[in-house]
């Protein structure tokens, strides 16, 4: 299934913006905590006070529905995650624990890391991480808190147990080696045989088989699906979600919203994936509402086979003034499709219903909390996108919070890794704008572009689908960033604006993004693989003509784009090939691209970039605190919903653990 449709921005990228970010004009403090390789940021919600009472109530209940899915995501990431979290919660809330002990600080960092990642595996690198405090000390904390569990303690410290959330092993069984809780006793071969037996590749409206289920080999040896639905797995959490969705429907802005919510509840009750498709078709129709959301088992990033979806929720409100740019893009979607540098066979003859807008997040939940995307394009089913269209959003207040948080830091990636002052100056002039526009192009048009040939399954690329789809959307955006049409439409101010962004993209993809990967580890995360694939492929293809040049100065390495126009030609060439791979379902060619260009990291460059980055004292990843939406009552009636901006990461995590515990 084609359900890789969002682009994540990590804090290292935002730190690179540094001085080119929007100026901070108020006393609001964005960065509220830092630990390990992470920092916690607050975001504000512009436009909240301009909503009607009904719209606020609608957003409030949608946010509550989103937060009730929290335990689902934790359990999906690894079956041990919830027991670990419950032990941490007990320790953190136990008055008898001695918090003055020197080892407690290391325990606290571990606890925060677990809460940040929704489990014991790094949220981005997907490797298991471990406490720095001794095992005996951790055991004493558990004993004091009354949660002694030897098996749990052993798992926490076992460096050989479930070491990757999603395995990318080239040799072993990636299903058996993955920690994700999507399979039980099932091998990769058995899973693939199961779905091949029920898949009809000729179905014009194919079902996303496996999207909302766990595949289990029962004691009798038969492989069966156990669905995530009311009355099935996660029933208690889903019951709360449905209850809040029902309350939200009472305040829906229009009939399309109300009907969509009803279909979503029906889907949760039945587990019927045809009902999920029916819901998505109805959800796409609402393009006028101010308040919108996502809710469900949606993205398959975390499944090693790219089939099963992690639960996530999101609530946002439209930024009407800022949406003018994305509306221009969506209005001209057919022009971009018609002029795409791909084989005409793979272009859509008619681009339908690409609805794009700029929004401000109201609540992050599940797989989008606390680390969140900055853009979303849904639904994922190719046939729905082709026949009914899609919705694309760029999330402005999250991007702005990243940038303003970066301003609070004394140093930036840009000054350390850019080749010269001219490159720094041009990026300061255009970089922030280009970054936002590339996200618009990626989400609004990139994911919505192209089509599969008849008979090609949307799951044909298997475990390589995620990275290839993100690369396809990125390349679409990179190619059109340099098109004169962008200036003609008034989106970019200059035909030269794209050049600084090209330099930044290559520098990040081939070099600086690996500040976030431990030495000796491969590159495994889909978005990072996407960027490395593009940058490495273009670097190697352009070596003869020095399109991208690797330079050294004072013992430091730099990557410099010498010919941006020629680089655009390489982007076009690679976009055409990846679109061909997707349209034809060429698994072998996709596998070759990923394994050749996207996984292995040059060990010398890796060591250098981490050492230089460490000297900057920055955190490579950022996540967010949700504002609390608090009902205001007068004479027994709710008269308003006010925002309270939380500033304590652990306090919010512990509060959510009490209020939204279902498993």
Number of strands: 16
- The assigned structural class equals alpha+beta
Pick out the low-confidence regions. 1-22
Strand order of the largest sheet: 1-10-11-9-8-7
Largest sheet: 6 strands, mixed
What is the overall number of helices? 25
Average pLDDT, to the nearest integer? Answer: 93
Helix content: 40-55%
Radius of gyration, CA atoms, in whole angstroms? 24 Å
**What is the chains' assembly state?**
single chain
Write down the overall geometry: globular
Strand content: 15-25%
How far do the termini sit from each other? 29 Å
Provide the descriptors you would attach to this structure in a database record.
663 residues; alpha+beta; six-stranded mixed β-sheet; three-stranded mixed β-sheet; 25 helices; 16 strands; 46% helix
Write the layout of secondary structure elements.
Elements (H helix, E strand, L loop, with lengths): L5 E3 L2 H7 L13 E5 L2 E5 L10 H15 L2 H8 L3 H12 L9 H16 L17 H11 L4 H8 L25 E2 L3 H11 L14 E5 L5 E5 L7 H15 L5 H16 L2 H13 L5 E9 L10 E9 L5 H8 L1 H6 L15 E13 L6 E6 L3 H7 L1 E6 H12 L5 H5 L3 H26 L18 H17 L2 H5 L8 H14 L15 H16 L6 E6 L2 E6 L2 H21 L2 H11 L5 H12 L6 E5 L2 E7 L2 E8 L4 H11 L4
Parallel strand pairs: 3-14, 4-5, 9-11
Antiparallel strand pairs: 1-10, 2-3, 5-6, 7-8, 8-9, 10-11, 12-13, 15-16
Helix pairs in contact: 1-15, 2-9, 4-6, 9-10, 10-11, 17-18, 17-20, 18-21, 18-22, 20-21, 21-22, 21-23
